[in-house]
Design goal:
By secondary structure, this protein is α+β, with helices and mostly antiparallel strands. The chain is built from four helices and 13 strands. It has helices spanning 2-12, 126-134, 173-188, 215-218; strands at residues 19-22, 26-32, 39-41, 47-52, 67-74, 85-95, 106-112, 117-119, 122-124, 140-148, 160-166, 192-197, 212-214. β11, α3 (173-188) and β12 (192-197) form a beta-alpha-beta unit. α2 crosses α3. The two termini are 34 Å apart.
Length: 222
């Protein structure tokens, strides 16, 4: 998220580089270089990555712009090797070469295939909603919670209810609500009902943030 990256770099006076691993495979599998055009594959000899169509399971050609689910096959593991392990990470190939000299392809993770919403035929990733909200920092904190009151497909009908933390000192909350809803409609092509809440009021997570709250499960609905 560019806004969060900039805030970390500005606060700590450091260079912020994105990396990604997998708890079942290896801690570090992908990492950015100084050009920040995507994460390079850095786990040669440890795992073999592929990108597949998440619905059919068919492998996709690795070329710039390819989108799909990332899967891994372990190479150096002797005990319980994992073969074509599905991560549910939805990625896009951003480059197949780089000025830094690395020749492996680069990716960005754009969401989770098991978190994806289908709103009137449009694939919507919660992380994309968070990116839109984060673009308005400091008017927002960047924190969101998507609330689904009904299971799909009924629960995916617009407007989608989204809680958004407003920033400290934000004055005109009505204008901010309208601005966020308009941006979501423009960037992600669906209608949202934004509920602004106080800073630091949404749950915090030490590991992966849970952006979707399924209220229907909490209420005992199937």
């Amino acid at each position: 998220i560019p806004a969060i990256r900039h805030k970390v770099e500005e606060t700590f006076g450091c260079v912020f580089l994105e990396m990604m691993g997998n708890g079942d495979m290896a801690g570090e599998i992908w990492s950015e270089c100084e050009y920040k055009r995507g994460m390079h594959f850095i786990a040669q000899g440890i795992v073999h990555p592929e990108i597949i169509n998440p619905e059919s399971g068919e492998p996709l050609e690795i070329k710039e712009g390819t989108q799909g689910e990332l899967i891994y096959t372990s190479i150096d593991r002797e005990c319980m090797p994992l073969i074509r392990f599905r991560t549910r990470d939805h990625v896009i190939v951003t480059q197949t070469d780089c000025e830094c000299g690395r020749t492996g392809f680069g990716i960005r993770c754009i969401g989770r295939t098991d978190d994806m919403l289908i709103v009137q035929g449009v694939n919507v990733y919660p992380s994309a909603i968070r990116d839109v909200v984060s673009s308005l920092v400091p008017d927002t904190t960047g924190a969101i919670e998507i609330q689904l009151k009904k299971p799909p497909p009924e629960g995916w009908q617009p407007p989608i209810h989204i809680k958004v933390e407003h920033g400290k000192g934000t004055d005109d909350l009505r204008e901010l609500k309208q601005k966020i809803e308009a941006l979501i409609r423009e960037k992600l092509i669906f209608r949202a009902n934004v509920e602004l809440v106080a800073p630091n009021s949404l749950p915090k997570f030490e590991y992966k943030a849970k952006l979707v709250r399924k209220l229907y499960e909490e209420n005992g609905e199937p």
